[in-house]
Write a structure and sequence with these properties.
By secondary structure, the chain is mostly helical. Helices cover 46% and strands 4% of the residues. The termini are close together. Bound molecules: zinc ion (ZN) (2 copies). The site of one zinc ion (ZN) has 8 residues, from loops.
């Protein structure tokens, strides 16, 4: 699992000013057009807390939509549909749905840079090894396995350098 900051970094740069603009516009509208009490200094504490949370919600929803756009794109999913779903399905339901249903990350062939789905063991174009596999039955094996769970053959960790170099890519 990658760190939170790595995930934040995939949000397209243009989304940050948009999020701030959205927050600014929201704050402006609230402060200038709030019913009954146009002066924020006269608001009751609960209204100010509510206002702060709504403001945060406005900014974070824009950032989350930007995240879904970039993340769905790199996973080869229908990113336009998912971004719109995150924006228009309220209360974060679209975003939660996205996390439940999103596809695994794509893998890139180290030799020819072709894209493959997570779980591919060999590159579909050049046949280079994308993940560790059993030397006997060629099925995917995990680095900590001492034996292949499919054919039972003993696995030598040092025989396959990909064992150490390739993270599993699953998250
Ligand atoms: Zn390849
Ligand atoms: Zn095997």
């Amino acid at each position: 699992m990658k760190s939170f900051m790595d995930e934040v970094r995939i949000i397209p740069r243009i989304v940050w000013p948009i999020a701030l603009l959205a927050g600014g516009a929201f704050a402006y509208l609230m402060i200038h057009y709030a019913p009954n009490s146009p002066n924020i200094s006269q608001w009751p504490t609960i209204a100010i807390i509510g206002f702060a949370f709504s403001l945060l919600y406005a900014i974070v929803s824009v950032l989350l939509s930007g995240y879904v756009y970039a993340d769905a794109r790199r996973r080869g999913m229908r990113y336009v549909m998912w971004t719109l779903l995150t924006i228009f399905v309220i209360y974060g339901i679209g975003f939660i749905l996205y996390f439940v249903l999103r596809d695994p990350l794509l893998v890139h062939c180290p030799k020819c840079n072709a894209t493959g789905r997570s779980g591919f063991i060999f590159c579909p174009l050049c046949g280079a090894e994308l993940a560790a596999s059993c030397p006997a039955c060629k099925r995917a094996v995990e680095p900590e396995w001492k034996r292949c769970v499919y054919c039972g053959i003993e696995l030598d960790a040092t025989a396959n350098p990909l064992n150490a170099a390739m993270p599993s890519g699953r998250m």
